[in-house]
UniProtKB/TrEMBL annotation:
PROSITE patterns: G_PROTEIN_RECEP_F1_2. It comes from Pristionchus entomophagus. The keyword Hydrolase does not apply. Keywords: Membrane, Transmembrane, Transmembrane helix. It holds the Pfam family 7TM_GPCR_Srsx. This is G-protein coupled receptors family 1 profile domain-containing protein.
Length: 132
């Protein structure tokens, strides 16, 4: 492995530290979204539930950022086998995938609410959640 001079090593650790700070802030804010949706009765409408599911998947994705970058931030060099890397990153990758699907479902939900605005309020929410 090529050696890096001190300036570039500290510069990379600065950017990794910023990225980790944003990931921690994102985890906390997404947790607040989920908590607010659960605890506030008026927030339990279809779109807000989908947003809370999307926030939960983002928490898993942001935890993956911390898993990869924290050893770099503290100067720990870790070499792991490919299978362990795949296992470590499985949950964050599922978070990304579920997040993409949730964003699609939020868009479709908003489209249905605009096109079928009168019938949208009368939809059985349990069946609607099952379909989405």
């Amino acid at each position: 492995m090529a050696e890096i001079d001190d300036f570039h090593w500290n510069l990379s650790r600065t950017f990794v530290g910023l990225s980790n700070s944003f990931a921690i802030i994102g985890i906390l804010c997404n947790f607040l979204i989920v908590l607010t949706t659960i605890r506030t009765r008026t927030m339990r409408v279809t779109c807000n539930v989908l947003i809370a599911v999307c926030a939960t998947s983002d928490i898993f994705h942001q935890c993956g950022t911390l898993l990869v970058q924290l050893p770099i931030l503290f100067g720990i060099h870790v070499e792991i086998e490919s299978i362990y890397c795949i296992l470590l990153m499985f949950i964050p990758e599922m978070g990304i995938t579920i997040g993409f699907v949730c964003i699609l479902l939020i868009g479709l939900d908003r489209m249905v609410s605009v096109i079928f605005s009168i019938r949208y309020r009368a939809i059985n929410k349990r069946n609607y959640y099952t379909v989405s």
